[in-house]
Specification:
The chain is of the alpha/beta class. 31% of the residues lie in helices and 24% in strands. It has five helices and seven strands. The protein has a seven-stranded mixed beta sheet, sandwiched between helices. The longest helix has 15 residues. It is globular, with a radius of gyration of 16 Å. The N and C termini lie close together (9 Å). 36% of the residues are buried.
Length: 193
Amino acid sequence: EPIREVLAARLQEVGGRGRHPAAVVLDIDHTVAEWGQPVSDEGLSAMEEFLEAGEAHDSWLIFNTFAQEALLKQRVLEPLQRRLPPDRAPRLLARTAFIVRGADDRTHQVFVWSAEAGTWVQIATFDREAGGKAEGMRRILRHLGGTVEVLAAYGDDFEDSFSDAALLGMPEIPLVVNVGPKDIRSRQDPSQR
């Protein structure tokens, strides 16, 4: 099925249950930026539109990457923050969160926006062996009080079981979109599209 149709159906399903808060989970590379490059103008526009359109529905944008915090901020978050209208930026950024690689390859860190601090604050650090990106998603969803439903997760690395492959089979993520070069259909959980 074309991705737009599947996303539209998922959005209707979420709305039909009366639970409006929803999230889209993005890896950086091959989604909003080319490998190792800053986010494109088109990517910034899409994120800005998503946050603005989602303001009425409390939609979330969650970044799930193996990049470290400084790199994610430099490539994606700071350009997005500069692009947003200054009077609305804090409200829009309040619906962003991210999972990044820690200072070493063995840990992950989870951050959410803090209105008090006016920036993202770390809410968790965990060992990669605890479940990789999937564990980070569980921690963010718990932090959000279990009221946010994931529409889709976009990823590009399904070879590493701690990277995007960890998202396969998560009941909280009904749609996984592979934007990478490898075919993952044989590894996908039957409950996911």
